Amino acid sequence: MELALQNMPPYKRWWYKFLSLGLFPSIYSVIAFGYIGIPTEIQEMVRRQISPSIRVELLEFWPLDDWFTALFISALICAIWSGVGGYKTRSLLKSAYRRINGENEQLLEDVQQLQEKNESNAINCYELFSRYIFNNYFSKFELSSNERISLYKLDMDLFLCVGRHSDNELYRTRPSRLYPRNIGCIEKIWQTGYFQDVNPHDPETELVSWKQYNIDEFSFDTETLDNIKMKSRALQGFRIRNRQTETVAVLVFESIKAEGLKLSRIKNAMTPREMANLCHLLESLDSHMPSLEMASSEGF
């Protein structure tokens, strides 16, 4: 149920959780209608089980006929609640099943395509991961040309970009260098597992302050900042670990707008299951990706 409700607004999650409690009103409606339907003599026997003083107080509050009317109406409401809740819950779970099944089919299709490319020795891992990033994250979170997503694989304390997507052609350019682990937001992500930050300075109007913030917070130097094509303000990153809890990669979301990333929505969607899927894909293609020894020949 929780998996089906993830990424929904809070009011929708509470509404579906409320409807999913239909078991209790269902039991109540069965008991209430059962009581209404039994012979009058048995109804009286049941009522006698209630303390006489309480019965007197109840009858002073409402006549017996009104109590029967209230019992009937409440039982009817609970029956409707149970029916609608069960229908909505089943529909939600079916929808979640179709979505997850679709994601698995897409992943299987990508793997099959890789196998076909493997047979011809023509696997383009960068292209595959860039397409994976677009299909599973960029489109899902409805990001724009102001945003970019990059996947960096750890290799001997250096990070190599193995996949990237942005609708802005300038930002989606494949980087031609390796990234030190101890500089930038990558270091924060590698250390803590999750990191987000919003630069309070707009580089278009406060370039000096924007640079100083990155120097203070991320240990950049001025020359590096001058050469950065995408002057990001919002950052969000996730550490990807394998089953041995070893860091294998980091996934970084960036935006040149302070409010360009839906930080809470992205964080909720990056579940352990999602990161495990990405880790499995990385591990399955590890032998096909360039190592540091191959980096120079690959143009990095």
From TrEMBL:
Superkingdom of this protein's organism: Bacteria
Coiled coil feature spans: 97-124
Name of this protein: Uncharacterized protein
Species for this entry: Shewanella eurypsychrophilus
Record-annotated membrane-spanning stretches: 18-38, 67-87
The keyword Transmembrane helix belongs to this UniProt entry's keyword annotation: yes
Keywords, in A-Z order: Coiled coil, Membrane, Transmembrane, Transmembrane helix
Phylogenetic placement of the source organism: Bacteria, Pseudomonadati, Pseudomonadota, Gammaproteobacteria, Alteromonadales
